[in-house]
Amino acid sequence: MVFKKFLSKLISKDDLDNWILKAEKYLDEGNYQKAVECYLKAISENCMRAIDWANLAYAYFNLEEYEKALEAINKAISLSPDNLEFIYLKGMILYKLKDYDGAYKCFIEASRRIKNSNLYELLGELSLKFKKYEDALNYYLKAYKLNEKKIDALYNAGKLYLLFGDIDNAYESFKKILEKDPNHECKRIVKYIDELFEIIDKNIYEDIIRAVNLIEIGNYINALKFLNKIISIDKYNDFAYYYKSVISEIFEEYHKALESIRKSISLFERSIFYAKYGDILYKLNNSEFINAYKKSIEIFPNPYAYFGLAIYYYKKGDFEKSAEYFDKLLEITTYDVSKDSDKIILYSLIGKAETSNNLKYYEEALSYLDILINKNLDDIELWKIRGYIYFKLKNYKIAYDSFMNVLKINPNDIDAIKSIIVVYEKAGKYDEAISMAMKLKKLLDNKEEVDKIIKKLMNKEPTNLEIYSPLLNVPVIYCKIDKVQYHLATLYKYININPILAYIYLFLIENLNIIEEIFDEDKLKSINNLIEYLKEKLPVEMYKYSESPENYKPNDEIINTCKRELAKFGFIL
Questions:
Q1: Which residues contact 345 (CB under 8 A, 6 or more apart)?
Q2: Is the distance from CB of 36 to CB of 59 less than 8 angstroms?
Q3: What is the C-alpha to C-alpha distance for residues 479 and 328, in angstroms, rounded to an integer?
């Protein structure tokens, strides 16, 4: 606030004391120390009027001698108690003395007649300090209305709109600011909101689900097209990079897979991203894979990290450690709704059977295997697993049938042919085994190897052929999210990094009727309660974020509440 000296309109300059005239001259020149000296001379001659005391207070104010300024302005008010400009100046002095309550009362009283943008801006600041948020918003808007150069007042109004959950008015306020100052600090907020609106407008969440479905049926090239399209619109889409890493891993392009999964992690640290990071590091013989799995579990216990560790220890021959991780995996998959949970459970039950020599785990694995086969009757690997399990259970008839199903799909599958030879050998059907070996001979370049097998079969000697455990050649395992999971996972990301986007996304979830696709009553109740909870809590977080986006840290209570409720929807954290 810049005050002009208070001028007397009641007494002509001819009637003024010489010291008063000199003091006013020094005030005009901004020589406040000289002005004070002149006023003090006038006081000694008893020439001071109310306006002179106010001007003395103003001089002291500019010299930052606030206690003396307060004494002077109180004297002025005692002589002229209805002068609101004196009260305004007193408010400024009290403000500098950090007597905010006293300053606020003075400003309120002064504002009854004084319509001043600086005054309204100060009232906005103090109303905010006293948590009178609606008053603060109104004062900031009045300040801007009187003086459109007061963009800080409009910025504060925009932030208060966020506090009230009014995204539209906040956004409009920030846009007005950028028209006047294109590099204002609100630019980042507007940029993120604009980007999210574009993402919403282009329905990229539908493309994510399309990509996941294409990967599932092995149409990797078209899946990549969708993923690249998503990234061109939303360069922060962590799931797009995750699925790109999955495709690269399937093609055994592990360095490309590593690049993509690192990008995912850099955008948002999810447990499943670190699990995939561990998978890829392991295939690259990088010893850091164990730390990646442990980091994944630290973020949120999930079957993908436990499975990676279980397979590692199984291959290492440490069956006790392997069984421990298979157990942990089976303990937490009961509430997993991801489409590949049956496959993870299948491999884990096989793992339990082979690390404990308990054949009942094989029997239980068959129930999950049947579910998977019924989804895709042409999945060769699943039929091989079925043949392997029945072979281990010594049910050679069904083992044979299973491997024959493989040959119906691919008559030249060498592994299936070798497995049938082993089944025949175990069943004592050497003629049939020899016949199958002859077929194998036609397919292999190394005829001598097959001739040795045939010779042993003819002599009824052990061929030493084996049907290897599926655990030695596990396919790429990954999280296959559905539409509900994707939206909830995205909401969780925004809650952690940008509550303004989270608040917008909340209403997107409602408008898209996402929750109507949740058919479990307990989960539906949980998500409805969570949405109402976030509507209440996020406005404060939005205000905090707008105060300092680069230093924003989410509220621990909100994060823990989200973790607890969203964990019911699979391993998306």
A1: 330, 333, 365, 368
A2: yes
A3: 18
pLDDT digits (tens, 9 = 90+) for 461-491: 899 999 999 999 999 999 999 999 999 999 9
Tokens 């039929």 locate to: 383
Mean pLDDT to the nearest integer, 210-233: 95
Interval 269-325: pLDDT, tens: 999 999 999 999 999 999 999 999 999 999 999 999 999 999 999 999 999 999 999
Q: How far apart are CA 552 and CA 534, in angstroms?
A: 17
Q: Which of 541, 496, 534 is nearest to 515 (CA)?
A: 534
DSSP reduced 3-state for 5: coil
DSSP symbol at 4: P
Distances (CA, A) of 357 to 72, 368, 369, 422, 556: 95, 19, 19, 21, 45
Residue type, 542: M
How many Cβ atoms sit within 10 Å of the Cβ of residue 1? Answer: 13
Q: Which amino acid belongs to residue 97?
A: L
Token readout for 404 is 């024959």
**Alpha carbon 259 to chain centroid distance?**
20
* Three-state secondary structure of 280-345: HHHHCCCCCHHHHHHHHHHHCCCHHHHHHHHHHHHHHCCHHHHHHHHHHHHHHHHHCCCCCHHHHH
Q: How many helices (H) and strands (E) in the chain?
A: 30, 0
- Cα–Cα distance between 72 and 66 in angstroms, integer? 10
d(CA 243, CA 391): 35
Measured CA to CA, the distance from residue 225 to residue 207 in angstroms comes to: 10
Question: What pTM, to 2 d.p., does this model score?
Answer: 0.85
Amino acid identity, position 129: K
Distance CA 78, CA 57 (A): 13
- Give residue for tokens 């809590």: 537
Q: How many CA atoms lie within 13 A of 17 on its CB side?
A: 16
- Secondary structure class of 467 (helix, strand, coil): coil
